[in-house]
């Protein structure tokens, strides 16, 4: 296993769109394991392939308190969205920034597991928020995209300065 490098806004590679996975092999399982390890050590509750500069349509998530309930979703799609609420979000690719985002409260998801089998399930609360946040990454979207240009510019300046200086240790946390 390995800790992967997480890209930080405004890295243009965060705007790449992920490609559908057709090969379910050992290399895909290794990417999932490395992404989980990277997410746990950050620490974060989710991580999308685009954040570690891999084009495969894969997200890993664990919203459990004990970090013992990993979920790997390949080629995930949201089939249904219900309700709306506004919740503060953070992102490992935008360290130190927390802003409210409007998301669906209840969703239905279809995805494949690492063996290529199709799974379907319902999600609510933090899991639903996290899945919507991760799927946005697969489309090259970030949770700060709906903020005002002024706010996003301030965030960009702050993160550019931090990357010139080398990030402080706590800057990667998004919990
Ligand atoms: O660790 C994370 N916490 C979080 C909190 C509220 C809403 C979304 C998230 S996802 C984030 C990890 C991350 O950046 N995933 O892409
Ligand atoms: Ni994120």
List key phrases describing it.
single chain; 175 residues; alpha+beta; Peptide Deformylase; 5-stranded antiparallel sheet; two-stranded antiparallel ribbon; 3 helices; 27% helix; globular; binds ligand GNR; binds nickel (II) ion
Secondary structure: elements and pairs:
Blueprint: H1 26-41, E1 46-48, E2 58-61, E3 71-82, E4 85-89, E5 99-103, E6 106-112, E7 118-124, H2 125-138, H3 149-165
Antiparallel strand pairs: 1-2, 2-3, 3-6, 4-5, 6-7
This protein binds ligand GNR and nickel (II) ion.
Q: What count of domains describes the coordinates? A: 1
**Terminal CA distance:** 23 Å
Structural class label = alpha+beta
User: Which architecture per CATH?
Assistant: Alpha-Beta Complex
Using the alpha-carbon principal axes, give the shape.
globular
Q: Identify the CATH class.
A: Alpha Beta
